[in-house]
Design goal:
With about 240 residues, the chain is of the alpha+beta class. The protein is built from seven helices and twelve strands.
């Protein structure tokens, strides 16, 4: 059982952990503190969330099949016994993709085989990376999660941090993070891989094993896009 922290101890612990900071004689939450543990992070950071949309075709359209603005702390809260209390933004976003991404089916002899259109492992990694590494100074811009008939796109506001390239991400040698404290806590909660190889292991390799496709990693000055392709699956 984890030791309990008293009410008197909490402020000092949060200050020492950089979840709170001193400001003009008082204390206020840091960006990481708001994102991880704030009840309503969007009251102070309107851009801290996900805009998720599912389209019936392969292009953006006013005719959507599902859409949701996902708000709240990034991580899910559970009781001491492990029962869920509230799902965080990461898990709510993955749930949105699960219910909208569809599946592919084929016959193997007399058996009908059905498989999800995308590997959840890759979806989860793309969502976690977008939220963990986005530029939170870009005001008014959510992480965008768009599902189309043929693909999933996850768009993170802001360019890549200094020293990070698409080639390094593909090779699994990335050690730099824009939001280091946020990354460390998400790693402790097992949302992020320890050695910075999540893109290679959980996205590139997972997509190759799932349907043989290569994900697109597109770096631009103002955003970074991960595109996962859905293709008709067939028996191997």
């Amino acid at each position: 059982m984890q030791p309990r922290i008293s009410t008197a101890q909490a402020p000092r612990l949060l200050l020492n952990s950089d979840f709170l900071t001193r400001l003009e004689g008082g204390t206020c939450a840091t960006v990481a503190g708001l994102l991880l543990f704030g009840r309503s992070p969007n009251r102070r950071l309107p851009q801290a969330g996900v805009s998720a949309v599912a389209f019936p075709g392969s292009e953006k359209d006013y005719n959507t099949t599902d859409e949701e603005r996902i708000r709240g702390p990034l991580i899910s809260y559970v009781t001491d016994e492990g029962s869920p209390v509230h799902k965080g933004v990461i898990d709510q976003t993955v749930d949105f993709v699960k219910r909208n991404m569809g599946s592919e089916a084929w016959l193997e002899g007399a058996r009908r085989i059905r498989k999800a259109s995308l590997p959840i492992e890759a979806v989860r990694e793309a969502v976690v990376n977008a939220l963990a590494h986005r530029d939170y100074w870009w005001e008014g811009t959510d992480v965008e999660v768009s599902l189309y008939a043929d693909r999933l796109e996850v768009i993170s506001p802001g360019g890549l941090p200094n020293g990070v390239t698409v080639e390094k991400m593909r090779e699994g040698v990335v050690r730099v993070a824009r939001n280091e404290l946020l990354k460390e806590i998400l790693r402790d909660y097992r949302y992020i891989e320890h050695y910075g190889m999540g893109v290679r292991n959980r996205i590139i390799n997972a997509m190759r094993e799932h349907n043989g496709t290569q994900p697109d990693l597109i770096a631009e000055d103002h955003r970074f896009t991960v595109r996962l392709h859905k293709v008709p699956l067939s028996p191997t």
